[in-house]
Amino acid sequence: MLKTVVKKGSYHDSVVLMLLTNKISTIKGVKKVSIMMATPANKDIYRQSGLSTEALEEASANDLVIVADVEEDSLLDTIEAEMEDFFKKQSTVNAKNKGTESVKSWGKALAKQPDANLAVISIPGEYAAFEAERALDEGMNVFLYSDNVTIEDEKALKEKAHAKGLAVMGPDCGTGIIQGVPIAFTNNVSKGSIGIIGASGTGIQELTTIIDRLGEGVTNAIGIGGRDLNAAVGGITMADMIDAMEDDDTVKVLIIVSKPPAKEVRDNISDRLSNFSKPVVTLFVGEKPEYHEENFYHAYTLDEAARLAVSLVRGTKAPEASADADESEFFKAEENKTIKAYYSGGTLANEAAMLIKDAMDVKVPPEDIEGYMLQLEGNIVVDLGDDAYTKGKPHPMIDPAKRIECMENAIDDESTGVILLDIMLGYGSHEDMAGALLPSIIRLRDKAKKTGRRVFFIATVCGTRKDYQGYDEAVKKLKDAGVIVCENNKLACRTAIRAIGRDFKEPVKEIRAKKVVEVEKHTPSEKLRHLLSDKPHIINVGLKSFAEVAEKFECEVVQYDWMPPAGGDVELIKTLNFLRHYEEIDEANQSVIAKVVASQPVLKDNVRAKEVIPELNKGKVILHAGPPVAYENMPDPMQGSCVGAALFEEWADDEADARKLLESGEVKFIPCHHVNAVGPMGGITSPNMAVFVVENETDGNHAYCTMNEGIGKVLRFGAYSEEVVERLRWMRDVLGPTLGKVLRTMENGLAINPLIAKAVAMGDEFHQRNIAASLAFLKEVAPYITAFDMNEKDRYDVIKFLADTDQFFLNIMMATGKAVMDGARMIQAGTIVTAMCRNGYEFGIRIAGMGDEWFTGPVNTPQGLYFTGYDGEDACPDMGDSAITETFGVGGMAMIAAPAVTRFIGAGGYKDALCTSNKMTEICISRNPNFTVPTWDFQGICLGIDARLVVEKGITPVINTGIAHKTAGYGQIGAGTVHPPIECFQKAIAAYAKKLGFEG
Fold first, then answer.
1. pLDDT class for 872, splitting at 50, 70, 90?
2. Where are the beta strands (DSSP E) in 890-965?
3. How confident is the model at residue 85 (pLDDT cuts 50, 70, 90)?
4. What pLDDT was estimated at residue 907?
5. DSSP assignment string, 605-642
6. Which residues, 6 or more positions from 140, have their beta carbon under 8 angstroms from its beta carbon?
7. Which of 105, 235, 662, 764 could pair with 759 in a Cys bridge, judged by C-beta atoms 3.0 to 4.6 Å apart?
8. What does the buried/exposed string (b/e) look like for 78-101 if buried means 16 or more CB atoms within 10 Å of the residue's CB?
């Protein structure tokens, strides 16, 4: 039975998950299992393997998914326990490698490594091109380990790199050495005067290890990817690196190695090399050159190329290698035995196929079968590193399972006389591949013996004596078990071919005069010169092991713990890339920020709403929180607030009449935001309610908000009892006029910024905690109130109400946020979020560049702590305009400012508050220097929620909020936090990109 476990937002790189899959697959009762991130490409692999489930299809690219075909349900517990143990061990290993700094964004990576000149990218191929382009835009060369990048993307990236004086190495580039530093799957090779430009992986490893064991060295070996010499790409990276190597005085001899190239590209490269000022050795796998040219040598095999280069450096011929094998036991040709060759990489496999075809005198290319380099008369050569074998599975360099499976099939074929394989040492490879394969080799050899058959196991070990696995140890281990071990791949292939009674001939080449073709030479860019002359400064995007190795070689490395941007949605990523390249957006966003920082909000007055909001004078009109919503779609508490407003305005005599009126359509409903107002929770504002008037003196605009009623059974939470209505009338008739008189008496109203600054320093975050600000407000107004000629009871009641209402300043803060953000959005450009609000039905946001347009999604229900007797089942979906405070940068965004409130809203404690605010900085582009937080090292509050960053990182703003009962009349039942639905932000950036001309 198929069982699925989805771990939301738990991202791990593919290599780690492949190894975990192998571990889980050994559990008894697990018939089949796959553990991968739910990227679109991986979902295809699940489908192809018959492991697709509904839960998998619903998962996002940032979700880890386990799909297992198990005999019993209880095995899921075992699988999860094994997985937890596996990740704990991984964490322990990572903890031992503390040197590499980790970040989670490009911005932070560049801040830590501002002089980075190389991005090493090893992430799923469907996203790799986007990150490579970003690296190029930041002025970095790219080492693109990732495969499954389209050839169209490869060409575009390389053309862009060329135009910028940079290089893209890859994609599917498994090996590189830059200034002696191993990149990706590479051996520990001595530095020296031989330069190499090669396809991508095992070919470079074979060359560099032979050179090292001969006593010479390689300082720079540049992998260009297997398709660079494809006609569609045109050899862009190869050509640029030839120019750079010629300019590099430390390079005395250059080796060029490539998988079979397109003829026109090969000819262009050869023409350029005929002009090269230093000795060159070329190896185009598949070609059998018959002569050399002066200082322009043409090799047939990797071994020949390596020994030629060493000979040219030394001025004396390098010695040839020989195999230690008893050829008397070998088969005769007429016995028709076959070779089964299983390789880790394409270049070595290509070479083996070429040599076997040569030995069999085959001129016509064999049938092209995916993964097979050769399938001819029972002889096969398989590149187990091909995408056909590695999709969703570990690479054969790190996992022996597929090779063992292949060897088992080979033994069952009675024609098999030789099993040929490579053992790859070096960074990234299995810690003991020889040891891992030997039990199977011995078992299979013995199985053949029992049936009276001989099967020769022949291996080549590709490595150096400095590789951590130990070259000599690996060779000895294999030889002791009866494996014929050869020093290089050519020798291993020749020994295998002789073992079945055949051989190939290497031509004896004369040296002819070099035919020089006049071609235009180019001076390499300073960036490429720098790449080859100094240790790279690396941002490692993906596999941590690559960063750890580079650091061992004293490189400056920043580890970017990458996750798929935009939840892995490729179309959204394209949208983000389009917006990222629009420089005007960043300029506009900074202008919005500047307006916010320069704003001067002043509390000017307190009046009846209809006196400042003309729309309230046009019949029966009620303002509500959030984006537009019909009365029938309002949650019960908001409808209850409307009942209370109708009773307050005396439009109805009782609840029944009020509901009848509201349902009749006679009352018009308008969002507060549409008339320069905001309202907490239900946001219900009617014509005669008292509202504060805040003027943003910088821009001359105004905003309005009702006054805070306190907590418990209040209108904003849906209560509408006589007590609630009477309180509202007292606020209209006494509290509002008193405060209005105070504010008008002040020479220029009450400046709000100083109050905010004081209260932040005293522990307010201005959404759930407003105690300091409310007391500071009381301190400002109390002297005026005590001096007024007014009824003593009214005076007492006003001061007592202000003293008792800890949240009183919240509504002033809301009007302030509205006034400031409305002033800022006059820019009418950019991606800064200028409003967030909810109505219990939908959540809506606005961004600067889209003016008044709302972008909505289904509203969430807050999570937090509840008053005694209530729980999450009682909670109403989120509502209110109070999230304008988070848009301004306070509330949940400034959680760190109010450690005292964190437990009340269910956030835990100080560390959780710090973590929350730090996380919010990842989606904000600035800080507000006007309001510094002592508990945050006096840094300014977050400022400027960028909708692009929200979508890219999948981090939505955290909002502190009260929790209303889902049934009207109960009022507030708790407090907590809530997050907007991310689709609001996705819709916003898609609309803005379309406005700017993006067609998608």
1. confident
2. 924-933, 939-945, 959-964
3. confident
4. 58
5. EEEEHHHH-GGGGSSSEEEESSS---GGGS-HHHHHHH
6. 116, 117, 118, 119, 166, 539
7. 764
8. bbeebbeebeeeeeeeeeeeeebb
Helix (H, G, I), strand (E, B) or coil at 35: strand
370-379, 565-574, 752-761: segment of lowest average pLDDT = 370-379
**Can you give 420-457 as a three-state secondary structure string?**
EEEEECCECCCCCHHHHHHHHHHHHHHHHHHCCCCCEE
34: three-class secondary structure by DSSP: strand
Residue 842 belongs to what H/E stretch?
A: strand 842-847
Structural domains in the chain, CATH included, are: 2-96 (3.30.70), 97-171+536-565 (3.40.50.720), 174-316 (3.40.50.261), 327-504 (3.40.50.261), 592-994 (3.90.1700.10)
Q: What is the 3-state secondary structure (H, E, C) of 787-824?
A: HCCCCHHHHHHHHHHHHHCCCHHHHHHHHHHHHHHHHH
Q: How far is it, in rounded angstroms, from Cα 737 to Cα 206?
A: 88
Give 903-940 pLDDT, tens digit per residue. Answer: 655 556 788 888 888 999 999 999 999 999 998 989 99
In 3D space, the residue among 829, 392, 422, 757 whose CA is nearest the CA of residue 600 turns out to be 757
Taking the C-alpha atoms of residue 579 and residue 571, their distance in angstroms, rounded to an integer, is 13
Q: Is 465 left (phi over 0), alpha (psi -120 to 50) or beta?
A: alpha
- Cβ-count burial 978-988 (b if 16+ within 10 Å, e if not): bbbbbebbbbb
640 CB contacts (<8 Å, ≥6 apart)?
682, 718, 719, 720, 968, 969
DSSP string spanning 380-427? Answer: EEEETTSHHHHTTS--TTT--HHHHHHHHHHHHSTTEEEEEEEEE-SB
Contact 184, 174 (CB under 8 A): yes
Token representation of residue 350: 């290509």
In terms of C-beta density within 10 A (0-12 exposed, 13-18 middle, 19 or more buried), how is residue 49 classed?
middle
For 346-374, what is the mean pLDDT?
A: 80
Give the bridge partners for 691, in sequence order.
607, 706
